[in-house]
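Team,

Forwarding the record for the chain on the shared tracking sheet. I've put the sequence and predicted structure together so nobody has to dig through attachments.
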Amino acid sequence: MDVQLTAAHWVYLAGILVILATMALRKNIVVPAVVATFLTALTFSGSIVTGLSAIFNASLVAAKELFNIFLIIAMVTAMLGALRQLGADRMMVAPFRRVMRAGTSSFLVLAAVTYVISLFFWPTPAVPLVGAVLIPVAIRAGMSPLSVGMVIAICGQGMALSSDYIIKVAPGISASAAGVEADAVADKAMVLSLIVGGTALLITYLVQKRHWRAPSPDLLVEWEAAADRGIGDTRGDDSSGGGGGGGSRPPRRPEPAGGPTGGGGEQTATATAVLVAPSDPIADPDAEAEKERRGTAKAFAMLVPLAYLAFIVYLMLGKFTEVVPPLQGGDAAAIVGGIAALILFAAAASTDRGGFLETTSDHLVDGLVFAFKAMGCVLPIAGFFFIGNPEFAGPILGISADAAGPAILFDLVTTVQSHLPQNAFITSFGILLIGLVAGLDGSGFSGLPLTGALSGALGPAVDVDPSTLAAIGQMGNIWAGGGVIIAWSSLVAVAGFARVPVLDLARKCFLPVMAGLILSTVFAVLVF
């Protein structure tokens, strides 16, 4: 297909190259993205008014598309804040310590749980579930927050979503565009996704292991305190004080007696015993209140995992039976947020019966502030890449709803493929590259019709099964736009729950994932 490139195409391409170069230099890319948005809109329309309004419209369109991610992060973060204030967060993760005792075991459990949930239900509900229950355990076991985010992104948005073997939306789109059977694409995509994911996980383990630390409750306190400082929360219900033993928040976590006996330890234990002696009439009410508080915390520590376990059972019943109606990805995420909100209300009421309305509001505000503080810079970046997608370009450029927006990014990709030499390896890597570039808009499935159509057209010419090329293109598109190596995608959710900068997470994932994609493409050409 002949595509006529205009000046707007070249300006948009220059913007992409500048953004990629800025990322390579480890600099923030908000300013280049905004300037590129302005210049692209100005060149396309010839109107400076359209160019200026596109700066605002691009971020607004991106906010509409990504706000569901922002909101669910805010809800779950608010819930965790209420549980932390109650003291239930530590009790909730205690059972997992039996398995996740150190970095390696936590790495394996985190990877397996994320992959299984994401494979059956997509990563949308998987990330909040893992974020609420397993991330704190992994941090306490010694894993760094960055490595936690990498594992979740690779196994969820990458390995599970790129094959989409259970729900089969992605293979269906690729197959219909390529003119082949969906099962053929799904089977090959499953194998390729395991190769990419296995390679990326192995590299991540080898590179990140040296950053892990010995298991300690202090690590969880440090992680929470760092996140609180990052969102500007100075109310301080965490561990800023605490001196002595473990940085835990008194009086929530009294350490058991019978530890090492030294002079200072004996004195502290004796002093504590005197303070809480049953004969002291002043200490008794506090002891009773503390006992009641711990009982409430223990109840919530059991309630939260059970609530989300019941939700998973509900999802499975909807998937495999007709007992309940099946849920789509968006519905599942909404239920995760709804459960988090109800638990938030109950936990806040248990902590502060008289003022729980105000306490609940404070936690919600903290959650929203955290979500926007961590991911707000993604909006103008996503807006630039959305301007290359015809689905979003119209509202950004002020084009009426009846008229189709320009397909700037797809036009560039189509032009590139027309110049590819007729060779199996070159064509396969060309389809992979096109999938990666098409995924730059941050939407995991938007480029699948393009890579599928190109696979159907180019496969017979180079004697490669079109289903193989379609699976390769699907790998590139989803590993990029699905939320692993592109920061302005659903990777923001992973970064939000792991509490790490999303751009740093994308950069760290890039090389392991690219190594896996190259290996899987070579395997596909040689074996399939």
